[in-house]
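Prompt: Have a read of the protein record below and flag anything odd:
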Amino acid sequence: MTVAAADREFSIFQRGDIREDLLASFRIGLRQYINPDTTSPYTETEIATATAVGSRFWIEADAIDLVLIAEQQRALWLADQVRIDRASASWLVGYHGELWGESPLPAAPGSGPVDAVALPGTTFVGSTTIGDPTAHYATDPAGLSYQVLQTVTTPNTGITKLTFIGRSTGEATNIESGTTLLWSNPPLNAEPEATATARFTGGVGSETSAQFARRLGARVRHKPAAGNESHFRVWAREATSSVEDAFVYSCAFHAGSVLVVPTQKRANVLGPHARIPNAQVLERVRNYIVPRQSSVVPARVHVVVRPPVISPIDLVLSTALGKGVRSGFADLIPFPSIHAAAAYVSVVTTPTDFRFVSDNDNALPSGGTAPALMMWNRATWRFEKLDVSTVTKTAAFTFRVQLHSAPSFTVLVNDLVSPDTARRSLIDRSVQGYFDELGPGEVVDLENDDRAHRAFRFPPPLEERQYRAGSVITTRVTEALGANSSDVALLSITGTVPPVPDYVISGPFLLAADRVAVYAPAT
């Protein structure tokens, strides 16, 4: 018997199907013959014995089954190659890529701000041409090099604000804030070292097969032609491999105008702003698709490139993890608990001393003076376990937390406090993954604006990159926690749809997690 796989347009055989078909045909044939030893028709016992497991005829049928299954696997492999989402790397590039005139994009460099110390009036020469020998450049501790992007003269303060872009490429060029860079060809009167003042972004490796397949599949799904929305999306994505995706709003300003909004690949950068393209990524997209410098877009087309704008929202989740175990909440009685609202910080005295309010707790759990707590670091989108010294009740539903050491972030009023769990890393990564799936919203009110019939977002959110947030996040958390979790619920969310900007030129909003808390289900 053949079985049609759910994702196949044709039937395939499972192991043993052909063997059983052969043996069934053999049994039917034997019933029509006379046994020469008995001069009587073959009995059912004799037929069953002749085709039993391990018999000569069973072994022959099983060998045929093995050979044909192997041949079928070759056929299945070949059938996969005609689909972009299943093709091997060589077929993806050599067949599909050549068919559509596309190839994987090369690696791109990271870029970011740097402070350099020099005497006032010292000139740091920059260049937008990567590898320009006239530009000043420096190397990081790993030996990767970066050059000055724009020429800057040191002001009277002696601190020069520079923008560096990697001469090297890849995720490793997304260096951390505070990284020391050693000048290779410093100008006169400059200190030998400079310092990165923020995390570099935009550095990515060569486009992977999966990324290339998604980009190529999008091109096939929506054919680019004559400067349509798909054409601008294709152009923006091929400008640099740092671009994760691009969203197009036709005629958003007036007839003949195009608003293009790229997002940036996260790579190894944490936090909500990792997907917001930096100035250098935006500039590369502009140079590629904005006339007159564009080599692909004809003159007299009004093209505007803008980044999305973060729209922060708060999330409160509950999950029925175990209690007092490594696979669940750290304490037997998770504290704080939740009734109507999440526990929030009401007063911050010092980095190691703050108070929070919990509407469902008027006392500490019995016998506990230092409950295990964690808080969401909104800058990195990671939960951090607090180094708790003591927790004491100070007023009705109010508790004072004293820490042995301050967390890596600054605790602020209204930050949310959660009971700690060793599964925190699985939860925060699933939250990050969920928000990374979202795309920016609309730039005009689709219900009331006259431009709605032409200025809606492309690709449509129902097809790719939904912009609405909601209960789907519980599925992501459940998938991450696996068997350790049950009954994940979204208790509250402060926004589900990105707001419409007051002005189209501001660019669309992109939902991103701001404050996140996780609790045991209310009892």
In short: The first helix runs from residue 17 to 30. The two ends are 53 Å apart (CA to CA).
